[in-house]
Amino acid sequence: MTEYGPRPVDRRLPTEEARDLLTLVRELADREIRPTAAEEEDAGHFPRATFTLLSQAGLLSLPYDEEFGGGGQPYEVYLQVLEELAAARLTVGLGVSVHTLACHALAGYGSKEQRAEHLPDMLGGGLLGAYCLSEPSSGSDAASLTTRATRDGDVWTLEGTKAWTTHGGVADFYTVLARTGGSGAHGITAFLVPGDAKGLGAAVPERKMGMKGSPTAQLHFDAVRIPDSRRIGDEGQGFAIALSALDSGRLGIAACAIGVAQAALDEALTYTAERRQFGRPIVDFQGLRFMLADMATQIEAGRALYLTAARLRDAGLAFSKEAAMAKLFCTDTAMRVTTDAVQLLGGYGYTLDFPAERYMREAKVLQIVEGTNQIQRMVIARHLAGPEQR
Predict the structure, then answer these.
(1) Phi, psi for residue 345 in degrees, rounded to 5
(2) Quick check: is 362 catalytic?
């Protein structure tokens, strides 16, 4: 049995260019990301140099139009790149997903002048973005946000606090949702706020059980003045923009989850093939073989689900329900698979000497970010049975 073990994922890619791209990503991950992932996560080191390298390699711009410096790749390809990056280090894979989410509003709803002015630097100029929707008192109920933008001529003044911001305090730009009208979803507008704006400050990053290298922090807007030229879309359109971004962002989380799960399976395969008990490799014991088989099946099912949703998106078809399904299933899969990987490694799985425990801690957050899995079930049910009766 020792000749068996982890193998590169057998991917069905649409073009030769995409196959070359995935080969490049694997090589970059093996050379630049994976070797130091455990050490840097343990130290809480944010890999800014890695994101600069990814920007130079064109990997922060993949799903956007080439006209403004994007990679022109379909989501089907972009998500598989995310999966490879997340398998090497979730802080990097999730960071790319968040950056892509932060670019979505301007790329999809900005004017041509706004896109020409900002997108080239956002996509390939070494900048890193963040997305500001949640607040201390409005997480799942995002439409109740209270950060307010008040207009005076051609200038908006932002006041309030955002919470759970990935890259908070280190991002070069923030896509911010703020209230410009009355209560509810229709009074929200989107803005592009530079990271060095006067009056913008970040709190001390949250102390988390995993992803310690990725700063998550509150952002405080203290009379932050933004010209109207940085308003994205129409006044009151912000919540619709946010929901559109989250549909795509949930696919990014799904792909990252499968990346973490695949890394955990690979670790379990390697360990069980090498670990010997009772005179033979433990991978020869049927109980463990069945666990590995279930892990691999769940991963393949999750991968197929997120790719199905991505192909709908690429075809210009509705994909909100499928995105919620993918986020739900893939992140639950990551939690199950990483837990089983720890079990397969026995006592070693519970130590910092092996990455299985890190994968397990990291998988948990994926069931929470960009809409908890309870919210995903609500979204799916609405597509099946209509809105809840109140």
Answers:
(1) -85, -5
(2) no
Non-local CB neighbours of 239 within 8 Å, separated by 6+ positions: 142, 143, 177, 185, 186, 188
Q: If DSSP codes are grouped into helix, strand and coil, which group holds residue 131?
A: strand
**Rounded Cα gap, residues 120 and 265, in angstroms:** 38
Number of neighbouring beta carbons within 10 Å of residue 276: 12
Q: What is the pLDDT of residues 199-253, one digit of tens each?
A: 999 999 999 999 999 999 999 999 999 999 999 999 999 999 999 999 999 999 9
Decide if 145 contacts 188 (C-beta within 8 A). Answer: yes
* Helices and strands in the chain: count of H runs, count of E runs: 11, 10
> How far is Cα 339 from Cα 333, in angstroms, rounded to an integer?
10
Q: Tell me the pLDDT tens digit for each residue of 258-316.
A: 999 999 999 999 999 999 999 999 999 999 999 999 999 999 999 999 999 999 999 99
Using CA atoms of 57, 61, 62, 68 in order, give the dihedral in degrees to the nearest 10: -110
DSSP characters for 288-333? HHHHHHHHHHHHHHHHHHHHHHHHHHHTT---HHHHHHHHHHHHHH
Tell me how long the chain is.
390
Q: State the Cα–Cα distance between residues 294 and 337, nearest whole angstrom.
A: 9
β-bridge pairing 148-152 and 155-166: antiparallel
Exposed/middle/buried for 254, CB within 10 Å: 0-12, 13-18, 19+? buried
B/e letters for 291-328, b = 16+ CB within 10 Å, e = fewer, are bbeebbebbeebbebbbebbbbbbeeeebbbbbbbbbb
Taking 3-state DSSP, the helix, strand and coil percentages for the chain, each rounded to the nearest 5, stand at: 55, 15, 30
Residue with tokens 């706020």: 193
Q: From the candidates 40, 84, 267, 370, which is the catalytic residue? A: 370
